[in-house]
Amino acid sequence: MKKPDVSFAPLICFEDTLSGVTDKAARLQPDFFITITNDGWYTGWFATWGVRQHLQHAVFRCIEDDRPMIRCANTGISCVINQDGTVTDWFSDASGLKIDVGGIFAVNSNFYPSHATFYETWGDWIVLISSVISVMLGGRLLCRLFLK
Fold it and tell me: Residue 58: CB partners within 8 Å, gap ≥ 6?
């Protein structure tokens, strides 16, 4: 069976905030991610902050997995994020509003072939290794301070 010319991995709602989910999707070697989300549960005084934080999580997933993403949000921010984590295109209304805007927008997106990133290869081991090294160095420093 021939591989399609372009393939994508769908991410639903907050799945683009979970590195484990996007890591599994990236192992299928899609060309890009598509996120379909509804950020309507962000309400009140922190709604704008929450919607922007959700977008920032998506940016990190693009960098970690070296994949671009198309975000479609009916009550959030719809945009295109490249593999470097740069938001290249925003959907906005005539007044420049980018949140809770409805409609259709078309963009041309260029992306380069992805490669396995350090995070994709090693996952969260870097956090464990960094923690062990920090504890060892911290213990050594404490021993020097208190055993003099």
Answer: 16, 17, 35, 69, 71, 81
Exposed, middle or buried, 39 (CB in 10 Å: 0-12/13-18/19+)?
buried
Q: Name the average pLDDT for the chain.
A: 86
- Tokens for 89, please give them: 């295109």
Among all chains, which residue has been given the structure tokens 């549960």? 41
DSSP state of 56: H
Cα–Cα distance for residue pair 47/76, rounded to 1 Å: 9
Separation CA 23–CA 59 (nearest Å): 14
pLDDT in tens, 58-100: 999 999 999 999 999 888 889 999 999 999 988 888 787 787 7
- The closest of 21, 68, 73, 70 to 47, measured between CA atoms, is 73
Residue 102's SS3 state is coil
Considering the segment(s) 8-115 as one domain, its CATH architecture is 4-Layer Sandwich (3.60)
Rounded to two decimals, the pTM is: 0.76
Q: Domain limits of the chain?
A: 8-115, 123-148
